[in-house]
Design goal:
Layout (H helix, E strand, L loop, with lengths): L1 E14 L2 E6 L2 E7 L9 H10 L3 E2 L5 E3 L1 H4 L2 E6 L21 H18 L4 E3 L7 E14 L2
């Protein structure tokens, strides 16, 4: 499982001209599920998403997490994140989990994060063509693995 996190001042997801998820200050996480990913890794990834220290403390150091700030979390499924781009000029998606399995694990990750994050969790729509808008704060972007 891959989560590309971006610290944002705001982010939203639109499907068919309707906003389906949006947050103010917090994290946008693009989530790619890979073959072999399983339920056991989900609590660890949720803890990493909520506990990764990317927000500034009073001294301006990245020492605060989403848990500390109470910011928003917007989770967006993105199978292209798991693409194999090592050769050729076209991505291969054999390194992405099958859609049904990816959707199950993504939805479970959303549920775990929602249980652990009182500020709530917003999402895009799995499998839909989504327009993701964000204002990256920093820019601050990290690739997390469980």
């Amino acid at each position: 499982m891959l989560c590309l996190i971006q610290r944002v001042t705001q982010a939203s997801v639109t499907v068919d001209d309707a906003v389906v998820g949006q947050i103010g200050p917090g994290l946008l996480a693009l989530v790619g599920v890979e073959p072999g990913d399983d339920e056991a890794m989900l609590p660890r990834m949720a803890d990493r998403l909520l506990g990764y220290r990317v927000f500034a403390d009073d001294a301006g150091k990245m020492n605060r997490s989403l848990r500390d700030t109470g910011g928003g979390l917007l989770l967006v499924s993105q199978f292209t994140l798991a693409a194999d781009t090592r050769s050729g000029m076209r991505p291969s998606f054999t390194s992405a989990a099958p859609p049904a399995e990816a959707e199950r694990l993504f939805n479970r990750l959303v549920a775990i994060c929602a249980e652990k994050h009182a500020a709530g969790v917003e999402t895009g729509r799995f499998g839909a063509h989504m327009v993701v808008s964000l204002i990256n704060d920093g820019p601050v972007t990290f690739l997390l693995r469980p």
